[in-house]
From TrEMBL:
A GO-annotated cellular component: membrane
Protein name: Polysaccharide deacetylase family sporulation protein PdaB
InterPro entries: Glyco_hydro/deAcase_b/a-brl (IPR011330), NODB_dom (IPR002509), PdaB-like (IPR014132), Polysacc_deacetylase_ArnD (IPR050248)
Coiled-coil zones: none
Length: 252
């Protein structure tokens, strides 16, 4: 009888101990911004960063409207000799600015999709999500001659359905781990600080080349100089993902 009671207590202690370890793991993961939310095995997920010790990161630029900011940003990248970056282009903007799309392509930068209409995909039906991704796909493929395989959804919004549909259509959803917050126009120095202080190996950095972001091209030279000064190699998202463990966050 004594042994049975002790065995029961031991089982209770083990359950409590396991739960405590799990809680600690959650806290640790959240501290390091590591995904702990899973929606089941073999489910598609969004890419936020990659786990690597190599000092490589990807600068990414979203473009959904405007014609005044993209050129100056490309000028900075060219002047600084940055050969690799990833641009996520919305298809209506691309149709309206084929010369800028061509320049991005000719400079050798990776082009991903930023969808068609700038709406939250999680608010759409499955058919509407397919239509938005598919229409952007055909337009970007037609303009660049290459079918994109990466997509950053408008506003970074997605749910399980978006991930599954994008995956079936041959796309990987790309998010970011460092937000420059250039969309807030907080000042050049703050944008530089937002990127450089948080940048880490395997990082995906969010910036914008739309007209609403008025300070990105002013902050970009210092961002590039300081990141390279710390020994970082600037690569595309696809290169960052190749041969490394991808760090993802899956939705409930």
């Amino acid at each position: 009888m004594f042994w049975i009671v002790n065995a029961r207590r031991l089982k209770q202690y083990l359950i409590i101990f396991t739960a405590a370890l799990f809680a600690i793991g959650i806290a640790w993961a959240e501290r390091d911004n590591i995904s702990i939310f899973t929606s089941g095995k073999n489910e598609p997920s969004a890419i936020y960063k990659v786990d690597t010790r190599e000092k490589k990161l990807a600068l990414t630029f979203d473009i959904s409207w405007g014609e005044e900011r993209t050129g100056p940003i490309l000028d900075v990248l060219e002047k600084k000799g940055v050969k690799k970056a990833t641009f996520f282009l919305s298809s209506p903007w691309s149709e309206s600015h084929p010369e800028l799309v061509k320049r991005i392509k000719d400079m050798g930068y990776e082009i991903g999709s930023h969808g068609h209409k700038h709406v939250n995909y999680s608010s759409l039906t499955d058919e509407e999500i397919q239509t938005q991704i598919g229409r952007a796909h055909e337009i970007l493929k037609g303009l660049t001659g290459t079918a994109p395989s990466l997509i950053r959804t408008p506003n970074g919004d997605f749910d399980k359905r978006v991930l599954r549909i994008a995956d079936k259509m041959g796309y990987t959803v790309v998010q970011w781990d460092t937000d420059s917050k250039d969309w807030m126009n907080p000042g050049t120095e703050q944008i530089v600080k937002n990127v450089v202080e948080k940048a880490h190996p395997g990082d995906i950095v969010l910036m914008h080349a739309s007209d609403s972001c008025k300070q990105t091209h002013l902050a970009l030279p210092a961002i590039i100089d300081q990141l390279q000064g710390k020994g970082y190699e600037l690569v595309t998202v696809s290169e960052l993902m190749a041969g490394t463990k991808v760090n993802t966050k899956e939705v409930q």
